[in-house]
C-alpha cells in the first residue's frame, strides 16, 4: 500500500437499528482500544491516522473532535474522503449534483439522515455535523479530499476553510473529474487509481515524519 501503513478496519453498529450516536461512539472506542493495544498491534501510537470515506469521513472527523473534547492523545492525522459533514440545502454543489449519483441525491441524503438520527435536533449536534462545531482548533492535521462532481463537495471545502481559520493544519485536494465514492472505482478507472495512490503516498510521508 502506498502509505506503507497497517490498516485496522473498524466495524460499528448500523442504523436504523442503532441510532446516532452509536456509530461514532463505537469508532471512538475502537480508537482508544488501538492506542492502548499499540504494542500488541506492533504500531506506533503516535503515528495513528483516522481515515474514512463518505459516512466514514464523517465518523473520522467526529472521532477527532471527541478525542479533543475528552482530553485524550489525538491521532497524527485525519484523512477524509468526500465526507458528509452536516446538513446542506443551499450550496452550489448540492444544487448542481443532487440528482447525479444515486447515493448522494437530495432524497437519498435525507433518507440516510432519517434512518440514522433520533430526531431533527441531532442535525445541530457537532458529533453529527462537525462543521457546526464552534471551535475547530487543536484538532489533528487533516487531509480532506473532495470530488469535483459530488453534491458533498462544497461542504467538504467549507470545512477545509473552517479548519484553516481555526489554525488546524489542513491539506485540501479536489479530485477533478471524480464523483462520490471514486475510491471504489480504482480497479477500473485509472484516473481514480492515480489520485488515490497520490493521496496514500502523501499520508505515508506525513505519518513517517517526526
Describe this structure in words.
The protein has 210 residues and is an alpha/beta fold. The chain has a single domain (22-208), classed as 3-Layer(aba) Sandwich (Rossmann fold), CATH 3.40.50. Helix content is 40%, strand content 14%. It is built from 7 helices and 4 strands. The protein has a 4-stranded parallel beta sheet with strand order 1-2-3-4, sandwiched between helices. α1 crosses α3 (55-69). The chain is globular. The two termini are 21 Å apart. The model has no long low-confidence stretch (mean pLDDT 94).
What's the gist of this structure?
By secondary structure, this protein is α/β, with parallel strands linked by helices. The protein is 40% helix and 14% strand. Helix 1 (22-36) crosses helix 3 (55-69).
Structural class: alpha/beta
Q: How many β strands by DSSP?
A: 4
- Treating each run of at least 4 consecutive H or I residues as one helix, how many helices? 7
Could you tell me the CATH topology label.
Rossmann fold
Helix content: 25-40%
Name of the top-level CATH class: Alpha Beta
% residues in beta strands: 5-15%
Radius of gyration: 16 Å
The number of domains: 1
Largest sheet: 4 strands, parallel
Overall form: globular
Overall pLDDT: 94
CATH superfamily: Alpha/Beta hydrolase fold, catalytic domain
Order of helices and strands: HHEHEHHEHEH
CATH architecture label name: 3-Layer(aba) Sandwich
- Give the termini separation: 21 Å
Strand order of the largest sheet: 1-2-3-4
User: Which regions contain 5 or more consecutive residues with pLDDT less than 50?
Assistant: none
Amino acid at each position: 500500500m502506498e502509505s506503507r501503513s497497517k490498516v485496522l478496519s473498524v466495524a460499528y453498529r448500523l442504523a436504523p437499528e442503532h441510532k446516532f450516536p452509536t456509530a461514532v461512539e463505537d469508532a471512538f472506542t475502537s480508537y482508544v482500544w488501538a492506542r492502548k493495544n499499540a504494542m500488541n498491534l506492533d504500531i506506533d501510537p503516535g503515528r495513528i491516522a483516522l481515515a474514512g470515506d463518505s459516512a466514514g469521513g464523517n465518523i473520522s472527523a467526529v472521532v477527532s473532535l471527541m478525542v479533543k473534547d475528552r482530553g485524550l492523545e489525538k491521532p497524527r492525522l485525519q484523512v477524509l474522503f468526500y465526507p458528509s459533514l452536516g446538513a446542506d440545502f443551499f450550496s452550489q454543489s448540492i444544487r448542481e449534483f443532487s440528482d447525479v449519483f444515486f447515493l448522494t441525491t437530495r432524497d437519498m441524503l435525507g433518507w440516510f439522515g432519517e434512518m440514522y438520527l433520533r430526531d431533527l435536533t441531532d442535525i445541530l449536534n457537532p458529533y453529527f455535523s462537525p462543521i457546526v462545531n464552534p471551535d475547530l482548533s487543536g484538532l489533528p492535521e487533516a487531509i480532506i479530499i473532495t470530488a469535483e462532481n459530488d453534491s458533498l463537495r462544497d461542504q467538504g471545502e467549507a470545512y477545509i476553510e473552517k479548519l484553516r481559520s481555526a489554525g488546524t493544519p489542513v491539506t485540501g485536494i479536489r479530485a477533478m473529474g471524480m464523483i462520490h465514492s471514486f475510491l471504489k472505482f480504482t480497479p477500473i478507472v485509472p484516473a481514480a487509481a492515480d489520485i488515490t495512490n497520490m493521496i496514500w503516498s502523501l499520508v505515508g510521508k506525513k505519518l513517517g515524519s517526526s
